[in-house]
Every structure is written in C-alpha cells, then in structure tokens.
Automatic annotation (TrEMBL):
GO terms for biological process: methylation. The lineage of its organism: Bacteria, Pseudomonadati, Myxococcota, Polyangia, Nannocystales. This is Methyltransferase domain-containing protein. The keyword Methyltransferase applies. Residues 56-152 form the Methyltransferase domain. InterPro entries: Methyltransf_25, SAM-dependent_MTases_sf. Keywords: Methyltransferase, Transferase. It comes from Nannocystis exedens.
Length: 271
C-alpha cells in the first residue's frame, strides 16, 4: 500500500496541467476565428491575414489562426513568461514548424509601444478587465489603434448583466474534471471583483485556485466612450443569443437589448 506522502503525489490535481484544463474549459478559438473572419470579410470585402492576440496567455487563438492557411500570420502578446513557454511547447510545437514560423510570441505589456501591425487586434475573454483604471484602458486602446493596419479592426468581448456586478459562482463538468468559477468581493464603488478559476477532480483533489486575479467589470458605455476617445468610430455590438433547444449560440448585431443575469457581446471597432 502506498504511503500517505506517495499517495499525495499522485492525486489527479497533482498530475493535471492547469493551462491544458483552462484551454479545454474556457477557450473556443474556432468560434472566435469564425466570428472575426465573418465580420472582417463583411466589412472589408477580403479575408484578414494578420491577427494580433493581446493577453494571449497560451496563444491557442494565435495558433489556430496560423493553422487556417499559409497566408495567415499571428502575434501573441502576454506578460506571463510561463504561459508563453507553455504555448511554445504545447501549441506551437505540435502545430509543426511551418505553422509555428508564422506565429510570433512577444513577452511584453500590452501597454508598451510596439512595432507590430495587424489586420485584426483582439482582446478576448475580457482580458482587458485586468486594466482597472480609465487611464490604463485608454492607453491600451490608443496602443491598439496604432497597431492596426489601414482598415484594420479591433475585436473585443464584454460580459455584463446583473450577475456580473455581484458575487456569483459557476460550475461546469468536463471529462475528468470540474471547472469552478468564483466571482466575489464585487465592489460597486470601483466595479472590481476578485475572480478565481479552480479545478476539482473525481478523487476529491483540487487545484484551488488555478488562476486568481482582480478585475474591473467595465460597462459598455464606458468602453464606447474610451474607444471614441482613443480615436475609434462607434463600435458595432454583437450580442450572444443561445438557442434554448440545442444550446447553439449566435452573435447578432444589436442597437438595444434588455439586461439579463449574464450577457456576452463582441465589440468591433474600426478607425
Ligand atoms: C485571463 S488570461 C486570458 C488568456 C487568453 N486571452 C484567453 O482567452 O484564454 C489573461 C492573460 O492576460 C495577461 N496579462 C494581464 N495583464 C497584461 C498586460 N498588461 N499585458 C500583457 N498581458 C497581460 C496575463 O498574463 C494572462 O495570461
């Protein structure tokens, strides 16, 4: 029989890879790319070639983008050297040298000046919520504007609703693990909240938290004002609708909507 200490080393949590679980539970790069291609093609009459994925983390989106054809190039920017190293090993490496050679990973702050230019710059999974001040978000939007090629588009998503400005928890089941989202300590004075993602396993072990940060829940009017101030035209807003029967989702452009417990949108901004 294994000793207690040996047994502890073999919990499912200890064997798990938090970045791999995050990708499985959170990322949906094919859906993101389909949306970006659809909107860009409709607005610009051509397919986008270069994508800059800000806050790229493990750069799954940048990798999937480059897989969509030899014309495609991507740039991923993130502050976290560990996530970028993981990206190289687990996403770019397995994609093969031809695809990896068209992906550039940059270890940098998205607020820093940079020379990269892209047809589409994206900030997805609400990552810019990690910039809590107006000054920071404006500086970021200005930086994005400088990073766009002529006729380029900035695509960001947003989450809101009555639950997004309150404490709430979510649990989703996956093959071999549960994903736990915790949104707590919401402060109505500055709209910040503490967020954490944990993973729970059938043997009772957990990675808790796997990721934790404080973010600011930016509102759509604030984003529209800041985009305007940064020199963007009024963004198009695409609201997520879910088919109650089969669970499929689609994004439709809207000018007004009713508030909900949780809603998701894409914003598409051009200069
Ligand atoms: C919640 S993760 C999202 C990762 C990925 N975009 C996704 O959709 O799954 C946020 C990422 O933003 C990065 N990050 C936070 N602040 C940043 C900054 N100022 N510049 C660059 N990356 C930043 C973190 O290191 C982290 O990898």
């Amino acid at each position: 029989m294994a000793s207690r200490s040996t047994a502890r080393k073999h919990t499912l949590a200890e064997q798990a890879d938090r970045f791999a679980l995050y990708q499985e539970a959170v990322n949906a790069p094919a859906d993101n790319i389909d949306f970006i291609e659809r909107v860009y093609t409709e607005m610009r009459g051509a397919k986008p070639k270069v994508l800059k994925e800000d806050f790229c983390g493990t750069a799954l989106l940048a990798t999937e983008w480059a897989k969509r054809g030899p014309q495609r190039r991507s740039i991923g920017v993130d502050l976290d050297a560990e996530a970028l190293a993981w990206a190289r090993r687990h996403n770019l490496g397995p994609a093969g040298p031809a695809i990896a050679s068209r992906i550039e990973l940059v270890h940098a702050d998205v607020l820093a000046p940079n020379e990269h230019r892209a047809d589409v710059v994206c900030a997805l999974n609400f990552s810019y919520f990690l910039l809590p001040s107006r000054q920071q978000l404006l500086a970021y939007f200005r930086n994005v504007r400088r990073s766009l090629r002529p006729r380029g588009l900035f695509v960001l998503d947003c989450i809101g609703g009555t639950e997004a400005v309150a404490d709430y928890h979510e649990r989703r089941e996956y093959d071999g693990f549960s994903y736990l989202w915790d949104h707590s300590e919401f402060n109505p004075l500055d709209h910040t909240a503490r967020c954490s993602i944990s993973f729970a396993f059938p043997d009772g072990s957990r990675i808790e938290p796997a990721f934790a940060y404080r973010w600011r829940v930016w509102t759509l009017p604030e984003l529209r004002d800041l985009l305007d101030e940064a020199g963007f035209a009024a963004p198009r807003v695409f609201w997520e609708y879910t088919d109650e029967e089969d669970g499929t989702t689609e994004y439709r452009e809207i000018a007004h909507e009713q508030n909900q417990e949780i809603w998701l949108t894409y914003l598409v901004a051009s200069t």
